TrEMBL record:
Organism field: Lutibacter flavus
Domain of life, source organism: Bacteria
GO MF annotations, alphabetized: aminopeptidase activity; dipeptidyl-peptidase activity; serine-type peptidase activity
UniProtKB keywords: Aminopeptidase, Hydrolase, Protease
Protein name, entry field: Dipeptidyl aminopeptidase/acylaminoacyl peptidase
Alphabetical list of InterPro entries matching this protein: AB_hydrolase_fold, Peptidase_S9_cat, Serine_Prot_S9B/DPPIV
A GO BP annotation: proteolysis
Keyword Hydrolase: yes
Family matches, as Gene3D superfamilies: alpha/beta hydrolase
Peptidase S9 prolyl oligopeptidase catalytic domain location: 741-908
Amino acid sequence: MLSKKNPTMKIFLTTLLIFISLSIFAQKKILDHKDLEIWNTIKNKTISSNGEFIMYSLEKGEKDSWLKIKNGTGGLVFEHERSEKGQFTYHSKYALFTLKPWKDSIKELKRSKVKKDDLPKDTLGIYNLNTKSLHKLGNVKSYKTPEKWSGFIAYLLEDIKSVKKEEDTLKPKKKDKKKSGQKVGKENGYHLVLRDLNNTKQDTFKFVTDYVFAEEAKRLAFITSGVDSTVKAGVYVLNLENNNLAQIFDAEKATYSQLNFSETGKNLGFVVDTDTTKVLVRPNQLFHWKEGAIKAQKVLDENNAPNGFRVSSDGKISFSKDESKLYFGLSKPPIVKDTTLLDEEIVNVEVWTYDEPRLYTVQELQVKSDVKKSYLAAIHLNNSNKLIQIGSLAYPDARLGNEGNSELALVSTSLPYELESQWTGNRARDYAIVNTNTGEITKILTKMSGRINISPAGKYAYGYNSVDSTWFAYSLIKKKMTNLTKGEVFYNELNDSPNNPYAYGSLGWSENDASLLIYNRFDIWKFNPDTGLKTKLTNGRENKTVYRYVKLDKEERFVNDKKWILKTFNEVTKNSGYYEFNSKNNTGKQLITGPFSFSTPLKARENNKVIYTKESFIDFPDIIASDLSFKKQNQLSNANPQQKEYNWGTAELVNWTSLDGVELTGMLIKPENFDPSKKYPMIVNFYEKSSDGLFRHKAPSAGRSTINYSFYASRGYLIFNPDINYRIGYPGESALNCVLPGVTSLIDKGFVDKDNIGVQGHSWGGYQIAYLVTKTDIFKAAESGAPVPNMISAYGGIRWWTGLSRQFQYEHTQSRIGGTPWEYPQRYIENSPIFNIDKINTPLLIMHNDADGHVPWYQGIEFFTALRRLGKPSWFLNYNGEPHWPQKIQNRKDFNIRLAQFFDFYLKGAQKPVWMKRGVPAIEKGINQGLELLPVGE
């Protein structure tokens, strides 16, 4: 112990400790591109039903995943390399997961030109949580477990040898054959193994094409193409309570689809096609089996289907909760082509018509779904298999009420409004109700904008009509409409686009459809759906706190009257947390809150144990175990302990006033060793409004389209992310009004190097950057990803991923022009950088890929060729075959390196890379990347 009489020694030791700590801090590493490979992400976290075990996978860069199982205090129970997609069995006795072949081994085999079918297959891991033993089953193609009971697992094998010799292997295996010479494969099926997890006993059923467990009963159904005279082709049901196997349908040659049990396993449905000819219109038949029956019975075929329809092989089969109705799909016969025509005799022409509902490009993308389109129908199993068609050509989309038990179904169509949605961006619908007992149709709602739902008990149609910004409930029994929020603000208060404001949403219904619970900006309100009387449940507006319900039970149909868990978010501080709310007396208490972003908790099915994450710019979202009191918290994972070795950063809110007098908020990221007396280069990066994400963690990664904040902060950059407040008709000017004063306010603080400020953004951000650099020279360098320099030509383009016209975007949504080019020609010109491109003095890097399905890549070309024509320093990156942003890891890495080299050169005086000096000639593409830095002086 130090003596109080020796202050000199105390000062010396204190100084020494400070020196040591500073030395340690000074030795922190700076993030480099190679370091991105050592950062882990947490995937597929899950909690067992008893809450005793937590499972997740750690994925590190391109390396193999590591699966980990831990107990509630963080103790390691089990781990395994190259493993993922973990799940617990229903009663928490086993953990199941997929073991992938070593990635490096797969790469080497591909390099050796090994065929895809001969590459190593996945292995199924079965870990016994009681005995701590692991069993591996090689060459597993797929597996299934029961949803609401346990003890068994069924899996398909690529190879029958894997049944005899269970092993984890990388060696390709030969395919087994029938005695007839037919091969194991998609057409003839694979070998199904049913394994009893409690005693490892198993049965093998060969050449299985489909299989399914009942949700609640111990039943397994499967379809086999047959082995020999002992096991015939057909449909089988296995009762696992008495091990009785029954063949309920047999056919030597048949094609099956939509095999599915009712919830209790007492009913089974499937579609079968037994026609062995090559007729183009397949004669599908619907079959139903009821427990106790020897064989399945045909209930519908082409002879008794509604006129002009047939049984669909693509419409999902399901049963009502009470199992009185079998639901299936009816479809129109396919359009048959003349198979006798030769290729040179076929005319391939696209005929686009001005008034057809869907643009031809949309039709092209939806051909497959159009071919598979089916219309919901019901068979009344207790009423002589009476058929009722629910969906129809007039109302193709159907929703069932009360888990299929309801007498009424809600049907709708968007067809009358699809043409105008091309420019409105809003697909309105007409709604009707169908009596599932009689088939009677009653029209109820016309041209409703916003999706309408049916309440859980099936008593109401309800939703939000965006045209009049009103929530409503329509009684299906009384046929009465009640406007619930007419004239009140239950819509987006901050709407800044020329579109109808969206709603904040609904959290659900109370028991038996007694009340509808709706959100406004901050609070939760309870409405009587018949009278419209309302009650405010929370008091968030007073302190700018948003309350939102957490659905802890995924099967919850009604919001119960017990204690709720709510997530909270304060719009001013950006703090979040969890709140306990007593819905009986409308009181509550904050359980946990702080300067973090909290995830939605995952709750164990059998008790109140939960796992969740909390994160900030500094704190990685590691897994935390607790219960619903959130008093005791155990951190279970430590995914990235190496972070403490690196110079990181901090995030804070900054405030300023826009040029048009609006108070604004943004984020400022500073290096960890920030010194306010120094001047730092700064990159401005933005997209709409981002400040609500202040406490989101930014792990180092090779991003698709934007700078990585922790990476650039570690390398000595400031990052400024300003929120943008838009004025309709002037999106470019709005960005200018918000960004420039934000930048100058930071310059005034004295720590920004005003001569070394860059700007970077993608898509909508890329457009705004293209606009900004035509109006200001404050930026020394800019990267503009997938930009739109010409709103006039872009207005008439196509969003190729959806086939939609881009018109609605400019008239009503993000581009915010508010009308057509012929209504507001000056707005289109003023907001288009192309008309002021000669004013640009900022060096530009542009990325725009040739498979972009969001923004036509000719916009990027238009931008670059104009810059090139004017001799403006500019570079264009096109990652061949990539969409709106690079998806392949090698391309993402390449983009991040070039982006950093670009900004380092202009903002930090680093050496210029070869690609910026001379490009990468086409003859060298894919060979020389030009990433090397030029010698000093060049």
